[in-house]
Write a structure and sequence with these properties.
- By secondary structure, this protein is α/β, with parallel strands linked by helices.
- The protein is built from 27 helices and 12 strands.
- It has helices at residues 21-28, 39-44, 67-72, 90-93, 120-123, 129-142, 145-149, 151-162, 164-179, 189-197, 238-246, 269-287, 305-325, 335-345, 351-361, 371-377, 383-393, 398-406, 410-433, 447-461, 479-493, 507-518, 531-544, 563-571, 585-598, 600-603, 606-625, and strands at residues 200-206, 210-212, 261-263, 293-297, 333-334, 368-369, 435-439, 468-473, 497-502, 522-527, 553-558, 576-582.
- The strands form 3 sheets. It has an 8-stranded parallel barrel with strand order 1-4-7-8-9-10-11-12, surrounded by 8 helices. It has a two-stranded antiparallel sheet with strand order 2-3.
- Strand 8 (468-473), helix 21 (479-493) and strand 9 (497-502) form a beta-alpha-beta unit.
- It is globular and about 90 Å long.
- Pfam families: Pro_dh (PF01619).
- Keywords: Calcium, FAD, Flavoprotein, Oxidoreductase, Proline metabolism, Signal.
- Belongs to the proline oxidase family.
């Protein structure tokens, strides 16, 4: 049975459309008379991301909202203010058993504690000599740019000429051991116990991935990431229903060549259902750990990436309609502007029809809609019917052709319902186990659809405790606007906001998030490998009177990297986490390559130079002191 959608299709910040420039560009190139694609072709067609170099359409750069407008909005909305948000559940405040007792919350305005991130003896006190040597060698190799650039080719050559057994024998005790915790759930427990001894907890992450290659072939993709032993597809018939829905799904037209993205490889809807079981197992593991557990999921494991890109194009279309409707530039669309916009698509619509359409969006009867109202209430499920009306009775303008080309078909809406149902099942399991579910950022061409899905589930599951965390990439210039918009959305709709901040300059995003945490309306995972960002966060926490533990602020770094940051935080009572990836080695190899390539700047930067210096110092100390264990 199709799931009813109560979520708006474009919960993205205006400037955050820069995150979907390539998706918008591809969508802009689509013609309105694209032929539908059959079920088999939709499921088997190889996903090809759009070329990053293609310029965005001009409308993608318009900014129809600002944070100032949110604060000035009338208070008659349906949501509760952040200050009225419920207090965190007890599970949220319980630190891990192995974590040192957290200090009392500092008085607001007090200077932050000075943490020593440069003490190798303290940082590596739980590591063996073999661990230290392996870490040093692996990080040194990752600093070799030719190796990182050609990692894919080197691995393929090794597997071709040496065979998988020999190739994996070289990778398993080195790169795999450094960045992954094992191949099965049972394998990860030694790593979890090692982290707990340092006051650090685990974010459980099934990391099996597959390459999305840059050929123009439409051949059937290889098998999707496999399940651990014992995992099975849910016996609820969703796969059959989704396969039937796929018969009506439309073609996303040609893929631009030359870009390689790494995602879960889509095989069919049954494989997506099987991934639900895999992620449920990870959530179950996280639920058994002390304190609030975290599990990470990837949307590309739960739906067709091609569908995600089609959704992203539709989401961008909704924002473009808002920008076109706001003719006076006041960052809102009033009834007059809405009527003018509506008649650009359906010029013969009656006044009664237009008024009824506006009233269905203006629930507060304020006579105007800002970007949060607009994106909350314009729903993807309405797209097919409106597109058909435009085909039959609408104008033949660029706008109408663009709308028809980007609107999802009824089959695509059903597939999107199925994908939402899978993520909803994981959110339900996470809520039952007291686990935070972090939805990872992925390829920019379908990131808008991933953001949209995360917000839909946050509205449903974050009422008392922020269960669903979305990821915000702070290095993208639209991230602050996106963050402000989503926090305002949570306030209006009366749920608590969960966010993971990654990469980039954290100052504005971080301060805004910590203020929201202080007000009781949010929790944040600060996922940074930058020591300055961590020190800033610690200082801001002290200034606001937020305690190191139990206050809704978490720190996270990748397994095998930035150990000085994670272990120092954990040993000083902060809620510190490591991403703990696991999966069959053959399927985790793309993750290892991506980890090296996406973090090459981190690996080659000052933080890794410092970590390697600390590793050398600790190795030397143990050699000179005879402590080789």
């Amino acid at each position: 049975m199709a799931l009813a959608w109560s979520w708006g299709p474009a919960m993205l910040a205006p400037v955050a459309l820069n995150r979907a420039l390539a998706a918008a560009a591809v969508a802009g190139a689509r013609s309105s008379d694209a032929a539908p694609l059959g079920a088999a072709a939709f499921q088997q067609r190889k996903w090809q991301p759009a070329a990053a170099a293609r310029p965005p359409p001009p409308w993608a750069l318009r900014v129809p909202a600002s944070t100032a407008h949110f604060s000035a909005r009338a208070s008659g909305g349906s949501g509760a203010p952040a200050s009225a948000a419920p207090a965190a559940a007890p599970a949220a405040a319980a630190p891990a058993a192995a974590t040192p007792a957290a200090a009392a919350a500092p008085a607001a305005g007090a200077p932050g504690p000075k943490l020593n991130f440069d003490d190798p003896r303290a940082v590596f006190k739980q590591a063996s000599m073999a661990d230290l040597v392996r870490a040093y060698v692996v990080l040194a190799v990752c600093r070799m740019d030719p190796v990182v650039r050609n990692a894919d080719a080197l691995l393929r050559a090794a597997r071709r000429w040496l065979g998988d057994r020999a190739a994996f024998a070289a990778v398993r005790p080195t790169f795999f051991r450094q960045f992954c915790a094992g191949e099965t759930e049972a394998d990860i427990w030694p790593t979890i116990r090692f982290l707990q001894a340092n006051g650090v907890r685990a974010i459980i992450d099934f990391a099996a991935e597959d390459d999305v290659e840059s050929s123009g072939s439409n051949q059937k993709p290889k098998h999707a990431a496999g399940a651990p032993a014992g995992a099975a597809a849910p016996p609820d018939g969703r796969a059959a229903a989704s396969a039937a829905a796929a018969a009506a799904a439309t073609d996303a037209l040609s893929r631009a060549e030359g870009v390689v993205g790494r995602v879960y490889r889509y095989e069919d809807e049954a494989a997506c259902d099987k991934h639900v079981s895999i992620f449920r197992a990870a959530i179950s593991t996280a639920a058994g750990l002390p304190g609030p557990g975290f599990a990470a999921v990837k949307a590309t494991a739960l739906g067709n990436p091609l569908l995600l890109e089609r959704m992203s194009a539709a989401l961008a279309q909704v924002r473009e309609l808002f920008a076109r409707g706001d003719t006076d530039g006041d960052r809102a669309v009033d009834a007059r502007e809405f009527a003018a916009l509506y008649r650009q698509l359906l010029p013969h619509a009656s006044d009664e029809t237009v008024d009824r359409a506006f009233g269905s969006l203006d629930l507060e009867r304020s006579g105007r809609l800002d970007i949060v109202d607009w994106t909350n209430r314009v729903q993807l499920k309405h797209f097919p019917a409106l597109a058909e009306r435009i085909r039959q009775h609408g104008t033949n303008t660029d706008l109408s052709r663009q709308y028809v080309a980007r609107a999802l078909s009824s089959g695509e809406v059903e597939l999107a319902d199925a994908m939402l149902g899978r993520v909803r099942a994981l959110a339900e399991a996470a809520a039952a186990g007291g686990v935070r579910l972090m939805i990872d950022a992925e390829h920019t061409y379908f990131q808008p659809a991933i953001d949209h899905t995360a917000k839909a589930l946050a509205r449903e599951w974050n009422r008392d405790v922020p269960i669903v965390f979305n990821t915000y990439q702070a290095y993208l210039k639209g991230s602050f606007q996106l963050l402000m918009e989503d926090m305002e959305r949570a306030r209006r709709d009366g749920y608590r906001f969960g966010a993971k901040l990654v990469r980039g300059a954290y100052l504005t995003c971080l301060r805004a998030m910590l203020r929201e945490v202080k007000e009781g309306g949010a929790e944040v995972m600060i996922a940074s490998h930058n020591q300055d960002s961590i020190e800033l966060a610690v200082s801001e926490m002290a200034r606001l009177g937020l305690p190191p533990s139990g206050g809704g602020v978490y720190f996270g770094q990748l397994l095998g990297m930035a150990d000085a940051l994670t272990f120092t935080l954990g040993q000083n009572g902060y809620e510190a986490f490591k991403y703990v990836p696991y999966g069959p080695i053959a399927q985790v190899l793309p993750y290892l390559v991506r980890r090296a390539q996406e973090n090459s700047a981190v690996v080659q930067g000052a933080g890794t130079t410092r970590q390697m210096g600390m590793l050398r110092a600790e190795i030397g100390r143990r050699v000179m002191g005879g402590g080789l264990g």
